[in-house]
Amino acid sequence: MKILGIGSNYVADLKDIPEKKKGKKFIFSKPESSLAVNCDVHYPSEITNQLIYEVELVIKIGKQGKNISKENANAYISEIAVGIDYTAKDILADARETKHPWEFAKGFDGAAPMSSFKPVTNYNLGDINFDLKINGELKQESNTAYMIHDFADIIVFISKYMTLQPGDLIFTGTPALGKGEIFKGDHLQCAVNGELLLDFKMI
């Protein structure tokens, strides 16, 4: 199973999408050991003291595909969940400075908390609301209409480079505003179209 993510994939203003689409897509990966499904997550204080949260919709691939066309791409999505892409910002800053890979900043244990999946048929892919509350306070919210590269675009791009297989997961980007630092003891709640799907604490 592959866990992939796309960086900087949402805008705050719809009029910015055409210009942003001209930019390069940035794809990164997380190991399977980073997953934490519907459970509390231990704050990784042994490796970082600056942990950043980003709420994201996660799509699951339902069938194998390579060089997938745009018109067929959404048919490869079987289910949707909501998750958090955690980044150890201090480790990432060091990796960038030394031009080293990002794996340790993005792939530590618990770096990918995620909800259970819902059938893709439950959703209109171009109009999905999702949000994150921390300790009861709304921190991030957006709608898939604000994606620079939609689900199909992401699938087309990735499948040019690697075969997508059943069970592969793709974190599809965080809202343009609101990401920030998480702390031990924080309570996170993520909803999709108003339905609470992920509810956990940093312990």
Keyword list:
single chain, 203 residues, alpha+beta, Fumarylacetoacetate hydrolase, domain 2, six-stranded mixed β-sheet, 16% helix, 33% strand
Please characterize this protein's 3D structure:
This protein has about 200 residues and is an alpha+beta fold. The protein has a single domain, classed as Fumarylacetoacetase-like, C-terminal domain (Fumarylacetoacetate hydrolase, domain 2). Helices cover about 15% and strands about 35% of the residues. The chain contains five helices and 15 strands. The strands form four sheets. It has a six-stranded mixed β-sheet, covered by helices on one side. The chain has a four-stranded antiparallel β-sheet with strand order 11-10-14-15, with no helix packed on it. The protein is globular, with a radius of gyration of 16 Å. It starts with a strand and ends with a strand. The model has no long low-confidence stretch (mean pLDDT about 95).
Mean pLDDT: 96
Number of domains: 1
Distance between the termini: 27 Å
Portion of residues within helices: 10-25%
DSSP strand content: 25-35%
Give the neighbour order of strands across the main sheet.
2-1-12-5-6-9
CATH architecture classification: Alpha-Beta Complex
Quote the CATH topology.
Fumarylacetoacetate hydrolase, domain 2
Q: What's the CATH first level? A: Alpha Beta
Return the string of H and E elements. EHEEEEHEEHHEEEEHEEEE
Total DSSP E strands: 15
Individual helix count: 5
Q: The biggest beta sheet, please?
A: 6 strands, mixed
CATH H level, superfamily name: Fumarylacetoacetase-like, C-terminal domain
Q: How big is the Rg?
A: 16 Å
- Counting helices, strands and paired strands, the structural category is alpha+beta
Shape descriptor: globular
* Low-confidence runs: none
